[in-house]
Amino acid sequence: MAKRGPSVLIVTLLLVSVLAAANPSGGQAALDPKSVVGDWKGEYLVRSQSYSNKVYVTIKSVTEDGKAAGTIYLAGPAPYHNKDLQLVDAVLKDNKLSFKIAENPRLFFDFAIKGNEMSAVVLGVAQTEFTLKK
Questions:
Q1: How far apart are CA 46 and CA 126, in angstroms?
Q2: φ, ψ for residue 61 (rounded to 5)?
Q3: How far apart are CA 16 and CA 72, in angstroms?
Q4: Which tens digits make up the pLDDT trace of 56-112?
Q5: DSSP readout, 47-89?
Q6: β-strands 127-133, 68-74 pairing
Q7: Residue range 93-104, pLDDT digits in tens
């Protein structure tokens, strides 16, 4: 059996690095922006308060450069709940949809999308978990 020295290890590490750089999304192909457009529905959960409620996201459009337009509706007791809120600075990049809402600037939504599901953990006053399906 041939002895493999450090050069084989170096070549292997270089190959893995090149492949990872070529596909930074970790093996997932970037989403077709059209596949994100539409209505998403699900729930959000505030574990520290044992509270959950409904959430709806409507993506109206995504441009070729990833700029998204749409709304989010959060059911609940806060003043910004129970109405459609415009997505602010919404961007689709790779398999992530990120946005803010003007009504609560402490919230930053960063959804990971896999097929017809998206999920996020949003930090605001409390850590809130979101899961939605199309």
A1: 7
A2: -165, 155
A3: 39
A4: 999 999 999 999 999 999 999 999 999 999 999 999 999 999 999 999 988 999 999
A5: GGGTEEEEEEEEEEEE-TT-BEEEEEEE-SSSTT-SSEEE-EE
A6: unpaired
A7: 999 999 999 999
Residues in the chain: 134
Domains of the chain: 33-133 (2.40.128.20)
Across the beta sheet with 88-93, the strand order is: 84-86, 68-74, 51-62, 38-46, 127-133, 117-123, 108-114, 96-100, 88-93
Using CA atoms, how far residue 53 sits from 9, 43, 90, 105, in Å, is 51, 5, 23, 20
Torsions phi, psi of 77, nearest 5? -90, -10
Encoded tokens for 82: 């129970």
The residues pairing with 62 across neighbouring beta strands, listed in sequence order, are 68
Confidence band, pLDDT 50/70/90 cuts, at residue 48: very high
The encoded tokens of residue 131 equal 């899961």
Q: Locate 72 and state its tokens.
A: 């989010």
> Distance (Å, rounded) from C-alpha 69 to C-alpha 9?
47
